[in-house]
Design brief:
Blueprint: E1 23-26, E2 36-42, E3 45-52, E4 55-59, H1 71-78, E5 84-95, E6 98-99, H2 101-105, H3 112-121, E7 124-133, H4 145-158, E8 165-167, H5 174-182, E9 189-196, E10 206-211, E11 215-226, E12 233-241, E13 247-253, H6 258-269, E14 297-298, E15 304-309, E16 312-313, E17 316-317, E18 322-326
């Protein structure tokens, strides 16, 4: 495997550029048996940052290089006072006082001119949560977190207030961690991560615990899609009313049991009526439809379902939602965007926003 530097008499890194970062397994609640550090789970791009003198490389969780897409990050890492390091962190972009995941996604573009423009207009920054090699090139992977975290703190302080670098908060206070969890699930944090203080950096292993805050919303069923190669419903298209009374498509749910599928299909087909969505309508194949047909059937806006969701991006559910129950007691007109409005959120670059 390629390494950032070959070990020598003067010291060097033996950590490969395709080093697999330590990951987390999903849990329903935060561990409370002591000996844990809790950190916000930032909603960005995971990034391992390598520097050896004038050589800088940044890598995604997959091991693929990110420097082409984030040249400004490579530049500011090269300008830091510390000349050697391997760091674990998250790339974030802030727009309008809020962290923006779509702005990160926009960077993954083949056109160099577009990337250059965006790197100037919406520069990315790096929030740090671990240090994997020190300034002498020594690997810190076997060191427990209780010792790595103070080293990371000292590294951050040594960068003399570099504006594009931030240190992620960490706490051993369970109540503070629960407060972070309550504030997650919008455009800044994705939950809370728990790490054992006695653990080394377990590369490639799910040695951490992550907990996400799941919220619910009542949505209008504005349409549906059939299952591929089937005459039965595959997914429900969800809508919320905007301030002008227009019904926007905001996502979908496909958690329909086989036992109810046939009867639900008949019920939906009896409600077919254009336009379904009067505002933003579903598009063709995308992350919303995955392998399902691009065709969708519009419905009279009469049915309301309660769904569970995690993340909202640009007024839409980023991931598929889970259908919890039908809400015949709820008027469709009562299903508005206020249900998915951003909560009080953390920012690694300043005060809470």
């Amino acid at each position: 495997m390629q390494a950032i530097d070959t070990p020598s008499a003067t010291g060097g890194f033996d950590l490969p550029l395709d080093l697999e970062p330590m990951e987390a397994r999903l849990a329903e609640s935060l561990p409370d048996d002591g000996g844990w550090q809790y950190e916000p789970k930032w909603d960005g791009f995971r990034c391992l940052a390598f520097r050896n003198g004038g050589e800088v490389d940044i890598r995604a969780k997959s091991g693929k290089p990110l420097g082409r897409f984030f040249p400004e990050v490579v530049a500011f890492l090269r300008d830091l006072p510390t000349k050697r390091f391997v760091l674990d962190g998250e790339l974030l972009i802030e727009t309008g006082g809020q962290l923006s995941f779509p702005a990160l996604q926009a960077r993954l573009h083949p056109a160099a001119s577009r990337i250059e423009r965006l790197s100037s207009e919406t520069p990315a920054r790096l929030v740090l949560f671990d240090i994997l090699a020190d300034a002498a090139g020594k690997s810190l992977l076997e060191m427990p977190l209780s010792e790595r975290r103070p080293l990371l703190q000292r590294f951050y302080e040594a960068q003399r207030g570099a504006p594009d670098l931030s240190l992620s908060p960490g706490t051993q206070d369970l109540e503070e961690a629960r407060a972070w969890l309550s504030a997650s699930g919008n455009a800044s944090t994705d939950g809370v991560v728990a790490k054992r203080l006695v653990d080394p950096y377990a590369k490639g292993e799910r040695a951490m615990i992550k907990v996400k805050r799941l919220r619910t919303a009542d949505c209008v069923v504005g349409g549906f899609r059939y299952r591929a190669d089937s005459d039965e419903v595959g997914s429900l298209l969800l809508g919320l009313y905007d301030e002008d009374g227009q019904l926007d498509h905001v996502g979908f749910t496909a958690t329909i049991s086989n036992a109810e599928r046939a009867a639900l299909t008949k019920r939906l087909e009896a409600l077919r009526e254009a336009p379904g969505f009067t505002g933003r309508a579903p598009g063709g194949p995308s992350r919303w439809s995955t392998e399902r047909s691009a065709d969708w059937q519009p419905l009279r806006p009469e049915l309301v379902v309660e769904v569970r969701f995690d993340q909202v991006t640009d007024g839409r559910f980023r991931h598929a939602t889970r259908l919890l129950r039908w809400r015949p007691d709820k008027k469709p007109s009562q299903c508005g965007y206020v249900q998915i409005a951003p909560l009080l959120s953390l920012s690694p670059f300043g005060a809470a926003s």
